[in-house]
Amino acid sequence: MDMRFEQVPLANVPWAELDSFADRTVHQTKAWLAFLAETQGAQPIVLQIFNAGEAVGWFTGATVQRFGLRILGSPMRGWTTAHMGFNLVDDALIDSAVTSLAQYATSDLKCAHLEVLDQRCTRGVVPPGFKSTPLNGLVVDLQTDDEQLLLGMTKNGRRDMRKSLRSGVVVSEVDSNDSQFVQEYYSQVSLAFARRGLAPTYPQSRVESMVRHLYPTGNLILLRASLPTGETAATGIFAGIPGGGASFTFQASDPDFYQWLPNEALVWQALRAWRERGALSFDFGGREIGSPTDFKRKFGGADLTTDWLRYSKYPLLESGRSLASRTHKALQKRRKFRSG
């Protein structure tokens, strides 16, 4: 196929047109790219795609400099970002789009490495020259009523959610002007990591940045689960886009209040709140299939495994990427040791 890419200056991107694509994700929006620019030092990249001279879609990503090399991520691991990739008029173009992007990224954008997580890449088919890591997920269909959502949950999920609400747990939406909310969330997630002997993989400032950029757009829902005493038992931050999908972005709870099952009540409200805003599905993100502690499975949904594709201009970069991942995990444990 004669496929080519044309970079469009951000000021000239027809954002409303892109947001109208049926395959659009919140992680491709203008506000999300601003969040990545602030927290990752990333340079947003928006490419229009042409096939045989005809406009057939768009690509959204961002470049970063690492160890003197330019890298294109859509997204990169560690960005607190899920599916990005392409918006296409025809899903059948995905294979050609991925392989053509690798050539464009290494030649025109001068990138040494490329990573793509696109919601269409679910077949386990790895294009020539690429490597792949499976991302196991779970997606709940929101195009239904409460009764069907409940039927889709596991028996234990329904029981625990109802028990939480009967016990007096109240879940409410929070305004971004609530100065305590992000601090409450980060304190809770820090406790969760500490129970595993780790420190959080991201700073509180990243959560603050997400709220600052996304909340004004209407693409972010903040939820707090409170006990009858008024104490905060759990918090959650859920990004999404009307007409597209919502996601399980950030969620945490206080270990002292686990017996109240606040997480079940919180996520139940997140599903219903995003359905009311017009989201068609809810993506629970990465999960460990078969784990006895698979909390997300309580809410039903369909298993979805996406291929996280990566392409390196130089083979040695693949080994360097694995080393960097191991180093990051070691430093995470070291930070926890020092803070303890």
UniProtKB/TrEMBL annotation:
Please identify the protein, giving its name as recorded: Unannotated protein
Location of the BioF2-like acetyltransferase domain: 155-297
Q: What is the lineage of its organism?
A: unclassified sequences, metagenomes, ecological metagenomes
Pfam families given in the database record: Acetyltransf_6 (PF13480)
Family matches, as Gene3D superfamilies: 3.40.630.30
User: What InterPro entries does the record tag this protein with?
Assistant: Acyl_CoA_acyltransferase, BioF2-like_GNAT_dom, PG_Glycine_Bridge_Synth
Q: Which SUPFAM superfamilies match?
A: Acyl-CoA N-acyltransferases (Nat)
